[in-house]
Amino acid sequence: MKHKRPRALISWSSGKDSAFALHEIRRAGGFDVVGALTTITETFARVSIHGVRQEILQAQCEAAGLPQVIVPIPYPCPNTIYEARMGEAVARAVQDNITHMIFGDLFLAEIRAYREQKLAGTGITPVFPLWERPTMPLAHAMIDSGLEAYLATVDLKKLPGEFAGRKFDLQLLNDLPDGVDPCGENGEFHTCVVAGPFLSRRIAVSLGDCVERDGYAYCDLVMEKDVVG
After folding, report:
1. Residues 168 and 119 sit within 8 Å (Cβ to Cβ)
2. Residue 44: CB partners within 8 Å, gap ≥ 6?
């Protein structure tokens, strides 16, 4: 009798780290990933923090073969509301016999500790497949795998605004200022994935307007509906 793999959700940000974590988990084959959990800011209908349009998120999940698990939050969102809604999502996952949640965190110990604390005793075990992988080799591994992504959000305290909308590629890695993590793990930038070995098709997007708000530069990625990806 074939051993049944534990059911897992992936914490899906729409960006490269969660996408590559999915890739690594699928390659290892130890989990049955049954859905992608994403927080959506209701006010803008966009992925929280990343600012990616919800229609692009939907296309990503369809191409990844992952049912969406949406956690809606307001803007601004007090931490109490965020934690309450995430708690509700975790409780529903437990009812669906999900036992693990996969995260794309790389090295921020306080973020990992927060996730472990919030999931402790819930019945959900966190999994960190990319944990403590050196980020420059990891960035190269992502690019070498065929991953394609664009910088959707840039922290203006750490990077000039013109980096918003740039492709995550070798040229970008060469152009990043000293002290900026090549994977943006310190929050320097957030990405939107449009292709890779974890997606069944490329998602055709064009670069829309770039705006600055609340200390961040956002590049609006727009789906090209008339282009077959």
Report:
1. no
2. 51, 75
In this structure, the number of other CB atoms found within 10 A of the CB of residue 153 comes to: 23
Structure confidence by residue, pLDDT tens digits, 104-115: 999 999 999 999
Q: What DSSP letter does each residue of 69-127 carry, written as one string?
A: EEEEE-SS--HHHHHHHHHHHHHHHHHTT--EEE----S-HHHHHHHHHHHTTTT-EEE
Contacts 24+ apart (CB under 8 A), 53-57: 53/220, 53/221, 53/222, 53/223, 55/223, 56/14, 56/192, 56/203, 56/205, 56/221, 56/223, 57/12, 57/14
Report the alpha-carbon distance of residue 140 to residue 138 in Å, rounded: 5
* Cα distances (angstroms) measured from residue 187 to each of 105, 159, 207: 11, 10, 21
pTM for the whole structure: 0.94
Q: Which residues are CB-contacts of 3 (< 8 A; sequence separation ≥ 6)?
A: none
Q: Please spell the DSSP secondary structure of 148-174, one letter per residue.
A: EEEEEEEETTTS-GGGTT-B-SHHHHH
48: left (phi over 0), alpha (psi -120 to 50) or beta: beta
Which residue from 70, 86, 78, 99 is spatially nearest to 6, judged by alpha carbons? 99
Q: Please report which confidence band the pLDDT of residue 225 belongs to, taking 50, 70 and 90 as the band edges.
A: confident
Query: In this structure, what token pair is assigned to residue 161?
Result: 């605004």
Q: Band of the pLDDT at 229, cuts 50, 70, 90?
A: very low
Q: C-alpha angle 60/62/66, rounded to 5°?
A: 95
The tokens for 27 are 């390659």
CA distance 71 to 54: 12
